[in-house]
Amino acid sequence: QQQVKQSPQSLIVQKGGIPIINCAYENTAFDYFPWYQQFPGKGPALLIAIRPDVSEKKEGRFTISFNKSAKQFSLHIMDSQPGDSATYFCAASMRGGANNLFFGTGTRLTVIP
Amino acid sequence: EAQVTQNPRYLITVTGKKLTVTCSQNMNHEYMSWYRQDPGLGLRQIYYSMNVEVTDKGDVPEGYKVSRKEKRNFPLILESPSPNQTSLYFCASRLQGQGNTEAFFGQGTRLTVV
To answer: Phi/psi at B16 (nearest 5 deg)?
Structure first.
């Protein structure tokens, strides 16, 4: 059972476009929602993360929007560049216990020059 | 440099031949875990360890073993590999005790079982 559902599976945008990747969860005990970026041949690396006490977080061209009531969060990439082409994973974890990270299925983003 | 090191990066083996993928981290992290990455399925956790001598199953543990005898090392063992274990494997580590800490991943091990 997928704890975090992610869409779309793949996305192609023109340079300068604003790709949006969406994730949804059911477990209300989740309280940490990171996004990981993975380039070909590399391991995932933390890109940006949000806690549910805020509705939006920006770091450079990357923004997370969080809707606690809908149990959804999304990643927006402003002014996308070919160098942003990568696979993006959303994830969630909760305090206590093992703090395991539950990942979405990933979105392969291609930014066309 | 803080890092998680996996070896080997690529491995081709035959069905039933035992193998071990090593993982080592230099950040003194308590928590370590193994994931497999398959197209359309994302990252699925195989096993995790909250500290030395403490391991537990993740979502897809069948066919795998792990051990945690030292804090820095967390090897993944396939006693009798089968073709359905052909996948890309990642080891990760993070600080334990806090749910909002960054996970650091190794470079991955691409395993092919024929």
So the answer is: 90, -10
R_g of chain A computed on alpha carbons: 14
Distance CA B65, CA B111 (A): 16
Instruction: Name every chain B residue with its beta carbon within 8 A of the beta carbon of A98.
Output: 31, 48, 50, 56
| DSSP helix, strand, coil percent of chain A (3-state; round to 5) | 5, 55, 45
Structure tokens at B39: 């197209």
Sequential pLDDT tens for chain A (113 residues): 678 999 999 999 999 999 999 999 999 989 999 999 999 999 999 999 999 899 999 999 999 999 999 999 999 999 999 999 999 999 999 876 677 899 999 999 999 99
> Cβ contact (<8 Å) for B103 and A100?
no
State the virtual CA torsion across A103, A6, A109, B10 in degrees, nearest 10. 30
